[in-house]
Specification:
Layout: H1 9-17, H2 23-33, E1 42-44, H3 47-62, E2 73-77, H4 104-111, E3 115-120, H5 159-166, E4 172-177, H6 183-189, E5 192-195, E6 215-220, H7 223-233, E7 264-268, H8 278-293, E8 297-301, H9 309-324, H10 343-354, H11 357-369, H12 375-396, E9 402-406, H13 422-427, H14 433-438, E10 442-449, E11 455-461, H15 467-480
Parallel strand pairs: 2-3, 7-8, 7-9
Antiparallel strand pairs: 1-3, 4-6, 5-6, 5-10, 9-11, 10-11
Helix pairs in contact: 2-3, 5-6, 7-15, 9-11, 9-12
Length: 493
């Protein structure tokens, strides 16, 4: 079979279970595609580790084990610590670091029998919307490129994950979403990605950015594939993650094919105002019309504090980042400045050398809003508005079952186009930030193409713990359309 790389998680799992394909054969085929590191998506690959995992998967299959993911390849965003591969978080600060343990999400997928192809590029410490902030390897850091147009960004911070899945380098990848970093790159690269309810997936072993916002999730080509992955990733981890929800693991694929006749889809007016590009709106409107054909009803709703989500997020997230990143001081692990004076000088030089510009910017903002005299004026007020944003969603869910709208105001922009304007990057997250601040699950699925033939994503937002419903709504759309099967030119061979 010459087109194995074009198959998704579910299709590959079926072949493996029927023993029409071995995990070693599949891993070997995909490793061959990684030569030259297409789109700069991977930061680390180790074929010996990958093939050893594949052999173990084949042994489990031979012994009669049955699993929805056994032997299927995956690659991990380099924000998850891994025993078998270095973990850098895209930063010089952690270049060459090897963890003595796996992140819970990584371990659960490994326990399910998935085979790791390596670690994927990301914005440094997951801070960015374009995957242009990656700082490793320090000798020659390279931004990830979008497989649909290599002159454009793949989105961020999980841009390496999105690009790798879109380019058929891996059928699945892990990502993390703090303010939209699964949904936005999924939309820009024409794949499917879901951020579960905050606390559904353990944060243990995720290099922390903003602890009250960070959440892991899967990225794949279809809602069906994401459902299989999310089922393995989620579940309580109370002993190791104090923010983990004490909610049993569940099979998110159980209701994928349920009818959506009578479903009430809330359409927030704030997501369709000035600033939304006409090409994106056209694709989103067509997707909503398709849902009406499937029996759903569109309900106008309002999320009045949407525009406040950007200032609120860029107070809360940097505040938490400034605290989380204080551990990187050159003392116990990570980069240490080679030339320094006393201890204070070592701290200063280590952090100046180890952190990139965007990370420094957010640390400084965070330190400022938490400082004496400004905590009440900024941080405390932001937390109050965050609660109001969450309340807006609960009022909306009194009128609808799910909320739908664009993922981003535009399609992917050109590399370097916004790199000198951080505020322009921040504004690209206007539609993804509200759900993150409220801790709600959100999903992105491809629904067409916009300017320059670039993918457009539709965002679905559900109430707390409603991941199965979101995946069902996305799956029924994908059964009726073929946008999720489209692939960039030159990636099919």
């Amino acid at each position: 079979m010459s087109d194995l790389h074009n198959l998704g998680v579910a299709a590959l799992a079926a072949l493996l279970q029927k023993k029409e394909l071995s995990a070693v054969e599949l891993a070997t085929r995909l490793l061959a595609r990684l030569g030259g590191n297409p789109h700069q998506a991977f930061l680390n690959v180790d074929s010996e580790v990958t093939l050893a995992q594949a052999k173990s998967a084949d042994a489990r299959i031979a012994a009669g084990e049955r699993s929805a993911l056994l032997g299927v390849p995956i690659a991990h965003k380099d924000i998850f610590v891994t025993k078998d591969f270095p973990t850098t978080a895209g930063s010089r600060m952690l270049e060459g670091y090897r963890s003595p343990f796996n992140a819970t999400v990584v371990q659960r997928l490994a326990d399910a029998g998935m085979v790791s192809l390596g670690k994927l590029s990301c914005d440094e410490f997951a801070m960015g919307s374009a995957n242009e902030n990656v700082a490793v390897p320090s000798a020659k850091p390279q931004a990830v490129t979008n497989p649909w147009d290599t002159s454009r960004v793949p989105g961020g911070s999980s841009g390496g994950s999105a690009a790798a899945v879109a380019a058929r380098l891996t059928p699945a990848a892990t990502g993390t979403d703090t303010g939209g970093s699964i949904r936005q790159p999924a939309a820009f690269c024409g794949i499917t990605g879901i951020k579960p309810t905050y606390g559904r997936a353990s944060r243990y072993g995720m290099v922390a950015f903003a602890s009250s916002l960070d959440q892991a999730g899967p990225m794949a080509r279809s809602a069906e594939d994401c459902a299989l992955l999310l089922s393995a990733m989620c579940g309580p981890d109370l002993d190791r993650d104090s923010t983990s929800l004490d909610v049993p693991a569940e099979d998110f694929s159980r209701s994928l094919s349920d009818s959506i006749a009578g479903l009430r889809i809330g359409v927030p007016q704030e997501f369709f105002g000035e600033g939304l590009a006409p090409d994106v709106r056209a694709a989103v409107d067509a997707a909503l019309a398709q849902y009406q054909k499937l029996g759903a009803t569109l309900v106008p709703i309002t999320l009045p504090r949407t525009e406040l989500s950007i200032p609120v997020y860029y107070i809360i997230a940097p505040a938490e980042a400034s605290s989380n990143l204080s551990r990187f001081d050159g003392v116990k692990f990570g980069h240490r400045a080679a030339q320094h004076g006393d201890l204070t000088d070592m701290y200063k030089k280590t952090r100046a050398e180890g952190f990139g510009d965007e990370v420094k910017r957010r640390i400084m903002i965070g330190a400022y809003v938490l400082s004496h005299g400004y905590y009440d004026a900024y941080y405390l007020q932001a937390q109050k508005i965050r609660r109001m944003i969450a309340d807006d969603f609960q009022q909306a869910f009194g009128q609808c079952d799910v909320i739908a709208g664009p993922v981003a105001p535009t399609v992917a922009w050109k590399l370097g186009e916004k790199s000198d304007d951080p505020v322009a990057n921040y504004l690209a997250d206007i539609f993804t930030l509200p759900a993150s601040l409220a801790g709600l699950p959100g999903l992105s699925l491809p629904v067409g193409f916009g300017a320059a033939g670039m993918p457009v994503g539709l965002q679905l937002i559900g109430n707390y713990l409603q991941e199965a419903r979101l995946l069902n709504v996305a799956h029924r759309y994908q059964q009726a359309t073929d946008w999720h099967t489209r692939q960039p030119e030159g990636q099919s061979a």
